[in-house]
Write a structure and sequence with these properties.
The chain has 361 residues and is mainly α. The protein contains twelve helices and no strands.
Length: 361
Amino acid sequence: MAAGAGGAALGRAALAAPLVLLYYGFSIGITFYNKWLMKSFPFPLLVTLLHLLLIFGLSALARALAHCRSGRPRAALSWADCLRRAAPAALSTSLDIGLSNWSFLYVTVSLYTMTKSSAILFILLFSLLFKLEEVRVALLLVVLLIAGGLFMFTYKSTQFNAQGFVLVLCASFLGGIRWTLTQILMQKAELGLQNPIDIMFHLQPLMFLGLFPLFAVFEGLPLSISEKLFRFHEAGMLFSLVGKLFLGGILAFGLGFSEFLLVSRTSSLTLSIAGIFKEICILFLATHLLGDRLSLLNWLGFAVCLSGISLHVILKAMNSKGEEALKLHKEASSDPDLELLLRQTECGEEEEEDVETPQQH
């Protein structure tokens, strides 16, 4: 029994390892890609809109291939249903991505990574506000550790930019709303959007419409007079830009798909643990490749924040194990107890019949 359990655990670990590496590749890749692209093409909202169009095309292609292979029709929502049920999730997602990309014009990769990790803080605050979680000392400790670590990381930072920090903080706030609404949307069985390919297909048009007004206000006029897009002197520059934008769309699509694979084949806990080590990898690469400067206090703040995130992951693991153990206990105990009770009743009735039979003789 123990050997079988150990073999199953090793099998899950062997399955998770390549999926984690795939997730790391897309997640770390798109972070450094966005910072690199903003240096040569400073129009983050336009980049986000073009990526949304590309993701929509790739998800439509994936749906068509899945339909040809299985023969089963895919989930299809009307525009009315999309606007009524998916619009809040789409708007928060588009603003989260758009503001995150916008912030790369002002902040370093290390500051972005650290601030973006505070999304867990907002998710916890929303959970406590809407009474999805009970107020516990451990949860308050998580909030204090993450908030304190974020303050220490940004305090007297030599590469701190207030405008970029506010953009990332707003993106983190919207990220907390985004993942809550997306989870609710995927859990509604009647919509049939459990597969992320389907939900990506339905959300991208709404996300495009939600982000376009922001793009028109802040980037429309500067873009119309820029040589970056409309006044190229060489065709090679245009083809180079198109290639860069296409690469970003592939990375964005791959990130969403790799997250789905990791969660569906392992668990959300695996994704959370992988996210912690991913942030360590990004900070290490940012300091060595991009020259981000971090003081001892900044590193200490990062460690404090990671300890809060790790505590949150441990609490999730303990809660999930407790719920699973309780479920197994109920399943194991209900039927045998009933069967034992019935056997005792039958034995009692047989003994009474044996006693009555001699008396009749």
